[in-house]
Write a structure and sequence with these properties.
Elements (H helix, E strand, L loop, with lengths): L2 E4 L13 H15 L4 E5 L7 H9 L3 E5 L5 H8 L3 E4 L4 H4 L6 E5 L3 H4 L13 H28 L3 E4 L2 H6 L1
């Protein structure tokens, strides 16, 4: 068993430099390296990478680090020799990789469970967050339908959920 590990999901996203799913992914990678599981961890060199993760991978005898900047993920998977793909925050590109087994994590259904409300504008947010919120209030039905379809696409793969609430909601 060799795992292609999505370290890119631990890198900064629109929500900030560090985020919950990224930290979760770092913990999983740390445990895999401690147990000497064969891992090929891919990241994007154009983004910040936690130096601690880089050290953990390079210190592990069974792990390698691969920069996928500008490469299709399918190509990275094919060259890795892995037989499964793990992502702590699966995105459509991750799910489109042709692999015998894709394992992902669903951290919650907050984007479906919480509808945008008028009180959001009473609290300070970035302009991007405000703009996104206003779009959700105006064309919310279409956005929620797309998000629902994204979650349905996840269910075609092996998924781990982080709470009983999320499992029941699915």
């Amino acid at each position: 068993m060799k795992i292609l590990f999505d370290l890119e999901c631990t890198q900064p996203s629109f929500s900030g430099k560090r985020h919950g799913a990224g930290i979760y992914g770092e913990i999983v990678l740390r445990k895999l390296c401690e147990r000497n599981v064969p891992v090929v961890a891919f990241y994007d060199s154009a983004k910040w990478l936690n130096p601690e993760m880089e050290k953990i991978v390079t210190d592990s005898p069974e792990a390698t680090l691969v920069d996928r900047h500008g490469k299709p993920l399918q190509e990275v998977f094919d060259q890795s020799g892995a037989d499964r793909l793990f992502s702590a925050l699966p995105v459509p590109e991750t799910l489109s990789v042709k692999t015998p087994r894709t394992i992902g994590v669903i951290h919650g259904l907050r984007t479906l469970e919480l509808k945008p409300d008028k009180y959001f504008t009473n609290y300070p947010h970035t302009f991007y967050q405000w703009l996104r919120h206003m779009a959700e209030r105006i064309i919310g039905h279409a956005i929620r339908k797309k998000r629902c379809n994204d979650y349905i696409a996840l269910l075609g793969h092996d998924m781990v959920v982080v709470s009983n609430h999320t499992a029941a909601a699915l």
